[in-house]
Amino acid sequence: MTTTIEMLQAELEAARAEHARLQHEYDNLHHEVVHLHNELELRDSALAATTTHFLIADVTRRGWPIVYVNRAIAADHGYEPRELLGKSPVFLNPPELNAAALDELNQGMRQGNTVRTRVRSRRKDGSTFWVGITLTPIRNQEGRITHYLGTGSDITSRVEEQERAKQLQFRLTAEMQERERMAIELRLAQKLESVGRLAAGIAHEINTPIQYVGDSVTFLQSAHIELGRMLTCCEAAFDRMSAGESTAAVLESLRQARKDRDLDFFRDEIPKAFERTLEGVQRVTDIVRAMKEFAHPGQIEQTGADLNHAIETTLTVARNEYKYSAQVETQLGELPDVICNIGELNQVLLNLIVNAAHAIRESGKDATTGRIRITTEHERGRVVIRVCDNGCGIPKANIDKIFDPFFTTKEVGRGTGQGLAIARSIVVDKHGGHIEVQSQPGAGTSFILSLPIEGCRRVRAAA
Mapping DSSP to helix (H, G, I), strand (E, B) and coil, where does residue 88 land? Predict the structure, then answer.
């Protein structure tokens, strides 16, 4: 009996020890469950508190239903989280709003990649907004994708700001193109205005050699008539001599006819008439060629050009503007071709030459005392052009204003104030050069142009 009781007591003690062990294990497991529950609650609270969108979709089930959403994504779409569970992600991002984006997402997910893009989401009230999302695959222990985690945020304000910036950039580009077009038209209009102002003088320049040609041709016409008559007399003399008339009588009549028609005069003057005619034709040709070179709109791209030839061309075009006011002296050094738009530089040179002539005229000088001196030289990769006059000069109060648009000291109808402003724009902005002015009232003015031989692009590339 005693043995049985002892055995039962031993079993009871063993059961109590096992119970204590199991209770300890239960307490530990309960503690871990509580800890895990607290961690899950903390995670859920953190995900609920964040403004970042979190969404998990089960890709092993049809339609990829949503199995988790945080409060931020639900609130931004106007739903409660429970309303979105079981829905497909396309419920929030309809295909009709995101055809291109969904194609990109599907392609990336089929390859098991992390995909980033932006989509247009639809709220419960039907309004839409932009969301930037990142889809990351979640794999099981076998490496098979079971879920996709979607994270994102509302980027509507950023997209709208980018769109506004794009529109602003588009408008700025359009305005810059319009300004460039207007600047080109303004330069062309100013050039045509200059040509128009010179038109009467050019007509006079052409009229003088044409008069040489006309007078010479008239003389040659009368000489032709007289020589024709002399030829008739010679033919009649042959007939008379053939008829047996005295040779002495025939020769006397020929001498008289020669004297009456002054053949010696014709012998001396006919070659001169031909020379005057050819010179007149050449002069007209030179003027017309100069006008064509000067007035041609020119090409947009800059190419190599001979600036010395451009100066000579411009002097030909502007001759009537300065020939009654000044003598022009040129000292043109040996220059390489300069990469430039020669049509635009022709316009600059014309403005400076015409302004010099006007300044000399205003100073009271004439062609005997007025001087315009133009020099060119090559200095360390640049060509320097100087246009100097001994005219009235520029007052110190105006020296800083002469390149301002619409500034002019000329009376109404003689100047628009655009010439020097456009000249500066062409030299500095279009060709990467410099333009300076030195002037002394009552003594004269010098404009110094400095142009890079390699052109504006080379200068900007070096900068």
Answer: coil
Distance between CA 207 and CA 346 in Å, rounded? Answer: 24
Task: Tell the burial category of 318 from Cβ atoms under 10 Å away from its Cβ (0-12, 13-18, 19+).
Answer: buried
Segment 433-445 shows an average pLDDT of 90
Task: Categorize the per-residue pLDDT at 412 as very low, low, confident or very high, splitting at 50, 70 and 90.
Answer: very low
Domain range summary for the chain, segments of one domain joined by +: 1-38, 50-154, 165-295, 298-463
* Rounded Cα distance, 276 and 213, in Å: 7
Residue among 214, 208, 205 at smallest CA distance from 277: 214
Give me the amino acid identity at 197: R
For the chain, the farthest-separated pair of C-alpha atoms sits apart, in whole angstroms, at 203
C-alpha–C-alpha distance, residues 28 and 34, integer Å? 10
Of residues 191 and 319, which shows the higher confidence score? Answer: 319
Residues 347 and 423 sit within 8 Å (Cβ to Cβ): yes
The answer to whether 56 touches 67, Cβ cutoff 8 Å, is: yes
In the β-sheet with 327-332, what is the strand arrangement from edge to edge? Answer: 327-332, 371-379, 382-389, 444-452, 434-440
Q: Give φ, ψ of 309 to 5 degrees.
A: -65, -35
Among 436, 349, 338, smallest CA distance to 378 is for 338
CB-based contact 449:435 (threshold 8 Å): yes
Cα→Cα distances 421→354, 406, 425, 437, Å: 15, 8, 6, 13
Looking at the whole model, is its pTM more than 0.70?
no
Residue type at position 180: E
Whether the per-residue pLDDT at 207 is higher than 80: the answer is: no
**42 has pLDDT over 80:** no
DSSP label at residue 334:
-
**Interatomic CA distance for residues 194 and 351, integer angstroms:** 8
Q: Which of 438, 435, 429, 351 is nearest to 399 (CA)?
A: 438
Order the strands of the 145-154 sheet from edge to edge: 66-69, 53-58, 145-154, 128-139, 115-122
- Superfamily of segment(s) 50-154: PAS domain (3.30.450.20)
The CATH label, of 3.40.50.720, 3.30.200.20, 3.40.50.1110, 3.30.565.10, for the domain at 298-463 is 3.30.565.10
Output 197 or 46, whichever has higher pLDDT.
197
Question: Residue 1: which pLDDT band, with cuts at 50, 70 and 90?
Answer: low
C-alpha closest to that of 417 among 407, 430, 427, 409: 407
